[in-house]
């Protein structure tokens, strides 16, 4: 049994807290919101963000960050990506040398273009920082439906510790040394999911969705590999796997926000309707900045940015994608004949 703190009481943090407790660990959940903590203590359920998922009575809930962090072998950092740096700054005085922090949020910091793990390593240099991601909606993990994810770390030993901590008969965990590829796949797929949602909102069909997923992973892979990530990572669970589930699922907040925009909502109206952080909106600008830095073309992500931040009509964005300059699908393949 390990002592674990889940920092952040959103749907993902709560689903993982239940999983960790079911695995026999001593689990503490922290939130900055006193009302949220009181609701969890009273109902043993997050009635707003994960209704119907009953939590074990043994989970401890607190708003005291020191109480949550000190003495724990593992810290699962589950706050939305936009709050990662501010939360890490508050945590750093309580974190001990070598304490394992598992980052489970997805995003790229807009100002610095840093991944979540890079931000945490910068703010808490004494920690052993790792990541975990893959096609894993909180609603399904909370319900105990079979799910597979990947634990990434600087060392195999740390990755395997995380694998042992989380893995059970309904939650399979693989390991990987490619934290960069995992985080880029997990972040940029949210931008493509916005596009997929926009297509759904316009009433487009399966052909359109398949094109967005396939060409979307090509864009993500092109940028990730240019930045030093590995091709295999983007063809696996944290690349194409995470992209498929986020573009297709009824649980996807990014797809839902995109669908509302496709139906005529503004970005602000859509995010208000979703009622949760839409990570893809924050990653979209960062993706374009990275594309410029590494000289990579991201046509779908460019059009999403124009829709979100320049009020470009969604139908016009689709048309502009379709009539771009002609090209071959795979640049490296050779013809049999001239």
SSE order in H/E notation?
EHEHEHEHEHEHEHEHHHHHHHHH
Helical percentage:
40-55%
Query: Could you say which overall geometry the principal axes of the C-alpha atoms support?
Result: globular
Number of helices: 16
Number of strand elements: 8
Beta percentage is 5-15%
In whole angstroms, the N-to-C terminal distance is: 65 Å
Task: Outline the biggest β-sheet.
Answer: 8 strands, mixed
Which structural class matches the secondary elements?
Answer: alpha/beta
Rounded to an integer, what's the Rg over CA atoms?
A: 20 Å
Strand order of the largest sheet: 3-2-1-4-5-6-7-8
**Unreliable segments (pLDDT under 50, ≥5 consecutive)?**
none
Instruction: Kindly report the average pLDDT value.
Output: 95
Descriptive overview:
With 338 residues, the chain is of the alpha/beta class. Helices cover 51% and strands 12% of the residues. It contains 16 helices and eight strands. Strands 3-2-1-4-5-6-7-8 form an eight-stranded mixed β-sheet, with helices on both faces. The longest helix has 23 residues, at 179-201. The protein is globular, with a radius of gyration of 20 Å. The termini are far apart. The relative contact order is 0.10. The model has no long low-confidence stretch (mean pLDDT 95).
Summarize the structure.
The protein has 338 residues and is an alpha/beta fold. It has helices at 11-22, 34-43, 65-69, 84-91, 116-123, 138-142, 156-166, 179-201, 206-226, 231-234, 237-248, 253-262, 267-274, 279-294, 299-310, 314-322; strands spanning 3-7, 26-30, 60-62, 74-77, 100-103, 128-133, 147-152, 171-176.
